[in-house]
Amino acid sequence: MKLRLDYGTTGLMAEFPDNRTTVIEPVYVPPAPNARSTLAKAIQNPIGTPGLRNLYKPGQKIGISVCDITRAQPRQVMLEALLSEMPRERLEDVTIFIATGTHRRNSEDEIERMIGREFARDCRIVCHNARDSASLVHVADTSTGVRVLLNREWVSCDFKITTGFVEPHFFAGFSGGPKMVAPGLAGLETVMTLHNAARIGHPNSTWGITRGNPIHDDVREIARMTGVDFALDVTLNRDQQITAAFAGDLLEEHAMACGVARQNAMRAVEKSFDVVVTTNSGYPLDQNLYQAVKGMSAAAKIVKNGGTIVCAAECRDGIPNHGAYGEILGSRRSPRELLEMITSPGYSRPDQWQVQVQAQIQLKARVLVKADRLSDDQIRGAHFQPIADVSAAVDEALRTAGEDAAVCVLPHGPQTIPYLA
Predict the structure, then answer these.
(1) Which residues pair with 149 in a beta bridge?
(2) Cβ-contact 185, 137 below 8 angstroms
(3) Average pLDDT of 169-194?
(4) Between 289-300 and 352-364, two packed helices, what is the crossing angle to 10 degrees?
(5) DSSP string, 307-357
(6) How does DSSP assign 32-83, residue by residue?
(7) Which helix (H) or strand (E) holds 386?
(8) I need a labelling partner for 379 at 20 to 30 A (CA). Which of 51, 119, 205, 296 fits?
(9) DSSP state of 400
């Protein structure tokens, strides 16, 4: 059978044996007939709060957080829907915060593409920098001892709104909601604690779990204690179209959105597979190898111990060159040595969490990577095996595994999270 894998902006065709292949995709949900009216209805009928028009006061300094360039959030239409319910608010009184977490700064061109020319021109834009101590303020400590440093300008806003989209997340349970405060607008010290080796290594730090997940438990507490006045989240289908919108109290609307996302994206399977093919959902999610670990993590849920994961991710942004991910990978000779280093007492470096998750996957299965924007040496340097052809790599892996071996294909990567029933 021939299948289209999400890869960059164009996709990638690959062929698999008919009698040995299982394909797992998210439940297809058609797009909302009218995205604008769906958003407006959610905002006008909020969950757990009064309507937006009754909450904010004209002239207040408004702060709105949005996802950075690595996420497929439909930011512009969400901003338009919010501000249409705040008709007396001037755009010059609105600050849009690009919630980068510890990711790189987004360029002006990227920001204009993300939010539209009018908002980029007329609103104040703050691209969060977790490493700029002057832009941060200590606001509180959580009950578990997390020292909470947040973007100073965000904290000073009179009325705070988060926007995001909700899908399963490989160690925080689900995206969106409170993550748009921390780690999205948090300082590096706070992110390092939220993503330390103990939390990342906890069995509940995985896809689809929020309660009892030490990372998401802290993230919720931070958002609650530091104050969010209104929240808007959406769910998307595999074509990155809005399927539903949720608005109102941050934690209440997010919990409802997580329930919907869980039904559509998480799929039970009865057995594990010798070979699992995955992607990182295409651009913008597969723009670098760091992000592609998410797709590998989805595959790892159902690959056999000692099996093979084949990951196709374009990686137009490289390893990437920014951040410490590549440096950490290059500091040890094997995934096992990397994991031993990261979990040793006192070790702490930005991006260690991604390497830790990657190493855990690689101790379970070998990982082959198809990435046209990376050289073979770059892929090998990241401890993966480079491949030029997905179909050929799968055929070879199946031959090695034996005549009864089977392959599972996740064409949309982490938009589908399989799990053993």
Answers:
(1) 138
(2) no
(3) 96
(4) 40
(5) EEEEEE---TTTTTSSSSHHHHHTTSSSHHHHHHHHTSTT---TTHHHHHH
(6) PS-HHHHHHHHHHS-BSS--HHHH--TT--EEEEEE-TTS---HHHHHHHHH
(7) strand 385-386
(8) 205
(9) H
DSSP, res 284:
T
Sheet with 385-386, edge to edge strand ranges: 21-23, 407-409, 273-279, 303-312, 366-370, 385-386
φ, ψ for residue 31 (rounded to 5)?
-65, 155
Name residue 279's beta-bridge partners: 312
| Confidence band of 104 (pLDDT split at 50, 70, 90) | confident
pLDDT of 322 reads 85
* Residues 17 and 407 sit within 8 Å (Cβ to Cβ): yes
Q: Look-up: residue for tokens 């290594």? A: 201
CA-based end-to-end distance of the chain: 26
- Strand, coil or helix: what is 382? coil
Distances (CA, A) of 268 to 20, 26, 278, 384, 417: 18, 11, 16, 28, 9
| Residue type, position 274, single letter | D
Percent of the chain exceeding pLDDT 90 equals 91
Q: Please tell me the predicted confidence (pLDDT) of residue 332.
A: 96
To the nearest whole number, what is the mean pLDDT of the chain?
Answer: 95
Please answer whether residues 175 and 165 qualify as being in contact, where contact means their C-beta atoms are separated by less than 8 angstroms: yes
Q: Which of 88, 97, 135, 89 is nearest to 115 (CA)?
A: 97
Radius of gyration of the chain (CA): 21
DSSP 166: -
pLDDT tens, position by position, 267-278: 999 999 999 999
